[in-house]
Amino acid sequence: MPGCPRPRRPGGSEMTWEALSARLAARLFARFEGNRGAAASAALFPPALERLRSTVARFAADVEPLVAAADRATADDSQYAREVLVRAAQAGLLTRFLPRWAGGEASVTALQRRGSVPILMFVEELGAVSPGLATLLGAHYLGAMPILLSFDVAAMRRLLRPLCERLHAGDPAICAFAITEPEAGSDVEDAMGAQQARLCTRARRCPGGYVLSGRKVFISGGNLAALTTVFATLEPQHGIEGWTCFAVRMDTPGVQVVRVEDKMGQRISPAAELCFEEVFVPEECRVGPERRSWELNRVTLDLSRPLVGGLALGAARTVIGDVLAWAERNGLGADRLFHHAAARWIGAYAAAHALVVRACRVVPPLPDLSAMAKFVATDTAMRIVSEAMEWIGLEATVVGSRIERLYRDLRLTQIYEGTNEINRLAVFERVEHGQPLSWPRFL
Which of 168, 188, 208 is the last residue of a domain? Predict the structure, then answer.
């Protein structure tokens, strides 16, 4: 640099500006690698959350070979998913976020104080190994969410305590969440689209309860679940005006797993098609009031959407670390063009992560803020991984490589929990109903 004295090494000898640039870059990359764990978040999160992060990270690393094996297995081979769930149950990870009065370990006070930040850390660390791993375990809590949000303590004890007892014994008795139907997908996750959706799963009253008939598709963990929260239209209404939620025990006569989908990614987390043929559901297994489950569905999604963003960013964080290590191995550690690209990835990751954390801290969740957190984070993660693959080249496209698997896994995060296009519409849903946007008050 003209007019500037040459920099000096600690010993006093001169060094070139290029050498200084390379040295600073190496320090930056090393600090990024070290700080993305406990050191970075110690100032942001209390020790209890850091212990949770470390526990989940160790668990995810231990089961990563099972994730890789499931990626190569056939779609109907769920042995690896079952083994992961057994280990998760034994580690207490499937009861960690269920309330104590239902047999779990969570407290309402923690939810009020921290929002959904603890479960965000949970899915983010799982997503750092595999978004599919985060989906497999996270879908269990998603299935339990309508029961929790009903605020019916008796129902929580009645429906969730038997599952928690089995989970504490190491039996992976998980929950599943069933909304999607063959002719009703993301449209039932948007207020305007749901008004016109063709909902075919129906329930009718009978002595002592209800009879449920219909089909649900792409249900995460549907073939492994012990209990599934199913949304159905209660006759004689049509559409979401009659939507009612039921907790269906999967060993009930008439419940059938039709098939497990052969997905492009997240293969550790099976997605099943379920058929309900004249299934009797007792009155005590209805979740919440009759014909009021559209609101239950929306609040569930408002809680879960930022978490999808978080698990996607966990994978993006892993890819950033991998591509930085690849650059060092291949002599690009001091390359200014690579520095420019890496800085863009790190900055985009940090901004998206801040938005996700903010959305998770707000209790109760805001629909527009939750939707933004989901599509900003998943789009950001996908862009980071796509650009990182371009730098690595053909090596990144080899089937079985971690970045190739994460690329396929991440693509699904832009689709489930409402496609990102549906989530963009959700940002202005309040405006369409004559209400002001809520997110500016919280950013």
Answer: 168
